[in-house]
Design brief:
The complex is a heterodimer of chains A (about 60) and B (about 140). Chain A is mainly alpha-helical and about 60 residues long. Helices cover about 55% and strands about 0% of the residues of chain A. Chain A is built from three helices and no strands. The longest helix of chain A has 17 residues. Chain B is about 45% helix and about 15% strand. A five-stranded parallel sheet of chain B has the order 3-2-1-4-5. Chain B is globular and about 35 Å long. The relative contact order of chain B is 0.21. The chains are: A mainly alpha (about 60), B alpha/beta (about 140). Chains A and B meet through helix 1, helix 2 and helix 3 of A and helix 2, helix 4, strand 3, helix 5 and helix 6 of B.
Chain lengths: ~60, ~140
């Protein structure tokens, strides 16, 4: 279900430098907190109810 | 070190997140942060091709090319045997780019980074999204 772009590959640091984005340790920590909170909402039951909603079989997270 | 092509996908970006990255505004940092996180975690960001196409209709920024050139980004085209699920998801969220992002999220069991969480409100009350902060 995935495709490679086949283009020259840049590291994250190179991408951010080229895009003019400066990431800080504090910002990354805040992101991790947001991601953890969101992830806590995405329980196996939530995932499988959505999968059932669109006709997919349950997902075994284990 | 795991080659980028073998790394798991840790997060899906939808079209709105791609547009935020391409915007060059201070808000773009909230896409840069997960980019660095997934790289450090040995993962990659997954971006559905339809989301890139949608974003390209909203911005012509060369930052789109920069993002796609990242070794920590994998462009996701779709799975032939999931076309019915994609159609069903489109009925829930209203458009195909968002539907493909949501479908990958529940297929890979990862969150969708989005600047437009309201689009997912009917997908278990937005339980699969990581909203990008305002400002």
């Amino acid at each position: 279900m995935t495709q490679s772009t086949g283009q020259a590959r840049l590291s994250a640091a190179e991408v951010l430098a080229a895009a003019g984005i400066t990431v800080t340790d504090e910002g990354r920590a805040a992101y991790r907190e947001r991601a953890a909170a969101a992830r806590a909402e995405m329980t196996p039951d939530v995932v499988n109810e959505i999968r059932d909603q669109v006709g997919l079989p349950p997902l075994d997270r284990a | 070190m795991i080659p980028p092509e073998d790394r798991p996908i840790g997060l899906i970006l939808d079209a709105s997140a791609v547009v935020v990255f391409a915007s060059g505004t201070p808000r773009a940092i909230h896409v840069g942060e997960p980019l660095t996180e997934v790289e450090d975690n040995g993962e990659v960001l997954g971006i559905p091709l339809l989301c890139l196409a949608e974003a390209s209709q909203q911005t012509s920024s060369e930052r789109l090319d920069i993002l796609v050139a990242s070794e920590s980004v994998r462009v996701l085209g779709g799975e032939p045997d999931s076309f019915r699920a994609l159609g069903a998801m489109r009925e829930v969220v209203g458009d195909y780019p968002t539907a493909l992002a949501a479908l990958y999220a529940v297929d890979l069991d990862v969150l969708v980074l989005t600047a437009d969480p309201d689009r997912y409100r009917l997908v278990k009350e937005g339980g699969i999204v990581n909203p990008i902060p305002e400002g």
